[in-house]
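User: Please predict structures.

Assistant: First:
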Amino acid sequence: MMNKYIFGASSFLLLAFSFSTSLIGQEISSLTSINTPYDEQHPVISPNGELFFSVGFHPENLGGATDFGDIWMAKQATSGAWEKPMHVKSLSTSGNDVLLGFPDALTAYVYHSGDGIKMRQGIHQYARFGSEWNYVRPLEMGNFRNQGTHFSGRLSQDKKVIIMAMNSFGSYGNEDIYISEEIREGVWSSPINLGSDVNTFSQELTPSISSDLKRIYFASNSNISGRGRDIYTAQRLDADSWTSWSEPEPLGQINTEGAELSYVIFDQDKSLAFYTSTQNSEGFGDILMITHQQENWESVAKVLDKVDDGKDLKINQLEVSNDSIIDKESLSKASTVVVGDTQAIIPVDSIKPVIVEEIKPEKQRFLKVIDQQTKEILPFTLVYTNAQGFKKTAANQEELWAALDAGQVVSFSVSSENYIPSLVADPNSIDNELIIALQPLASGSTIVLDNIQFNRGTSDFADAKSISQLDELVDFLRGNANVRIRLEGHTDNVGDPQLNKELSMQRASKIRGYLTLKGIDFERIRIAGWGGSRPVADNATEDGKAQNRRVEMIIDRLN
């Protein structure tokens, strides 16, 4: 029987894979003369064509084998090969050192974590004299402060912007990406957080920015699959703002089960880029060079070139003008397919089999949202969190179910004006009709924040689902500035009653702390801790105890 490929946006989405067409046919090469058993990171090319980078845990570092990073440098021979790296002691300290870039051939900006005595934390300016570098001064950068051990950053090509990753004021979770702009020579603006379009509760690291300041590349471990850090890219949507970005997309074929970091385009004309990966190393980063091609960031699906006879397969994330069945011979003659409003070229030679499965019956899911009291049907808005930890508003139910079948929905929220929203934390369990009853937004309305879980006996959030519920609560309070709430913590009856009361108060306080960190006014949130004194179920059973361990949100009043 003829092998067939069924294309159609409305089709059942079977194969959950996609790629960026710009990355097809890329050549990846390891710089074997530079990479060592130690941690090579953060490559930067000087105006003279030298390769500078940080090496962590090298025994020759000024801080010894526990030093997070000293600056090293390698030159390129006339043959094109990189020579043996040299330790640049004049740019290094006993702490963590990261070279951000070169304003000119004789000037360098270097971050030092600081040793508390000779060198303070911050970004510093150096001047070159022959093969040595002399210290000039620290850059003034407002309220710059790194509260973590990691720092990465780069100077833009026009020398007017520094993009950096660190744990600082206003960070959403761990390391976030920030921007600082030059005010005048030696003076820069306070770092600006790029906002929740890019930054998540996880780590965003090693950012770089395109020459036109419109696209960023960065590493993140926000994906839910348990992989290491992957490289993502996002487009700046507003030239007058640093906080409006497109939804980040993974950078195609370079991402592996290892950790990828430090993606930077260093030669626009020759389309060359550096990045680092732990995939084929001994656990530390190695520097790799890759061909960077012109971006076409519309996601398309890989097409299979082999299908067992008699099995129809359907392709994920491929939109065409109409459903059609194309045999293998016809496909081999096609050079383009329509993706949205663009054309994406798919070289036939690059088509490889990935997953082969038989078509399974479609799930007939349907969502109905009603008023909890009157049972009337309500209009609603759907916002889902994808596998990379980013949020997207679904145009309708069909878009949500399609994204769910494609493995791109971790959770979703349902909201309606003048109602308290609801979070669906386990969408994969939905088989058919789901009815969600929303509570009207009124004083005294109470909901149990049952998706916020804590580690046993502590006030530490247990998992990513807890953070998702908290973020939904942040969005709700931001969208309803007149709402004041009360958070009440409860436990089961196991253990000391006074300790249980203290723990329940600590958990309510921890939630308030997260909300205020995200910009919610402290005065809008009251807290209470009741321990095990207000059970809602029988403590004689494990299920009952689980129901009693809860935090409730009560609408205190509407101003």
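Second:
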Amino acid sequence: MSSQTTFLVELGTEELPPGSLFSLADAFAESLRDSLKAADIAHGDIHAYATPRRLAVIIEQLSEHQPDRENERLGPAIAAAFKDGEPTKAATGFAASLGIDVSELATIDTDKGPRIGYRQTLRGEATKALLPAMVESAIKHLPVAKNMRWGDSRIEFSRPAHWLVMLYGNNVVEGSALGLNAGRTTYGHRVHCAHPIELANADDYLEQLESPGFVIADQQRRQALIRAQVEAEADKLNAHAVIDDDLLEEVAGLVEWPVALTGSFDEEFLKVPQECLITSMKENQKYFHLVDGNGQLLPSFITIANLESRDPAQVIAGNERVIRPRLADAAFFFDTDRAKPLADRRAMLESVVFQRRLGSMADKSRRIETLAAAISERIGGNSSAATRAAQLAKCDLVTEMVIEFSDLQGVMGGYYARHDGEPEEVAQAIAEQYLPRNASDDIPASLTGVALALADRLDTLTGIFGIGQRPTGARDPFALRRAAIGVLNILIKGEYNLDLKQLLQLAVEQHTELSDDDRQGLAFDVLEYTRERLRGWAQDNGIDTDVFNAVQARPVYKPLDAVRRLRAVQAFTQRPEAKALAAANKRVANILAKHDEALPEAIDASLFESDAERELNDAIQRLRDQTQPLLAHAAYGPALDALASLQQPVDAFFDQVMVMAEDPAVRGNRLALLKELQELFLEVADISLLPQ
């Protein structure tokens, strides 16, 4: 049996881009995993590590060899290979093609009779011999956004590469990549560990890097340390540190030895909206901000240094000097922007392109005016406020603050609208227009905000679909998936039972820049795309795929109504009658599909020939009267519970009644009865698609 040893590969570089650092490390590990699988080499866990100056992968329990494998080559049939006991040209030619003597051939039984052949055991190659090519290929195919060259070399990578470590246990794996020969020498922290580190064994990597190297290679541990240090610093001030996951990951990609330090800034800056200050600190300086018990920003920040300074006060003072002009810029932008009302900026939107074929942001604003007002009326809101909010919604795009910090669009519009004396309902809606930003985010709290947020997304969806730019598997430059999911979240979380088909048709009508051909079927295309996004919601909420398909098979265009049906059908599947009724509905659907003859408009009880027919008809009529009020109030669960009582009469009907009677009238009457049975369930979903 092949022994197993730890393998380490580390590529040392200049500082890598923090935004792509961890994805590069994961890709490095995944590529090696794929190569080992293709080579059929056994291994244990694979770990990816990354710091600003290195990408590394450790593979545990890596087998020393590929497994041996049996190779079988078949030649001609025995009858063609030998004549009178002597080999024919067919046999000698086959042996020659294998480089062996005819005497080494064997007789192998096959489905087509005995044939000559050759069996041999192929020895697996040594893993150490295969690793260099695997590593070189993995590095070559890393998803680097932009390569560069360095020195006189024509070698390209994200950043200049300086060292390469490849150790299999305590042995160096001879190989090269990016012009570097592999060895056992790595390097620690630039400041705290100026000398090279010789690794005796691959298993020593993490420990040796940390001490004496002052490098924490495990990015997850580095993030955990940063979080703990930031929270400890906040506790000293009796404050709460707001630790954004994206910022935490980015900061972890900037340091190898994190040390948290707390600084402060002038309280005068707190007159500026806290979102501006927070965004400036996060985007420009990568600081973590602090808030009090009421969530209000405090004039302090926490920065993560990449070393243990002998004089941390100097480091803090330096950061405080740097942050002051940044915050002063934010204050300047805020004061400058307020000097000009939002309404006066509407004309400037004419020169801001939304999309070349769909016009300017001013054109978009005019489209969503009509749409937002119509939605507002449907949800009991103020259509005048919705119209005004739509007119001003995009005006902050041309303010200094939003030009500098694009993430503040909408937020700043809300502040500026309040400053201009616009109604609070309008200002709040402007601030809420981009909610929810993700699946877990809050939806707009105001009715006007809901109308504006829906109108904006529906305009984008119909417009981009209309010019033929619908998302593909990997490309979604206009974030249409997020827009569709946002629409669903607003309607479902807010419990707005709106007809999405109608809203999309209204949105399409606003796109007068599109041709009639472009608009043909456009609303339905976007509707189906959005309904399919509901599948993700269903999965996240424990809805079975069969249940989703059963509801999706019905023309349900109100997402909230669809969700109510999904929950009801999911609960129905847990009833003991569900499988039998699903099977019966499947049988009914198959019978009706094969007979497209016209059915009588009403059931004729005089044509019944058995008690089973009468009992099923009585049950259907009784349950129709019972369920209609429930269905009218979307009480799908109680309706299905009532319909579950049909199992016994349905089973009896199929046991005792021949549907396809010879008498056309009797046959038609029985088919009509089954049609009524089917329609009862179709009021909720097509349960014939449920498991049977």
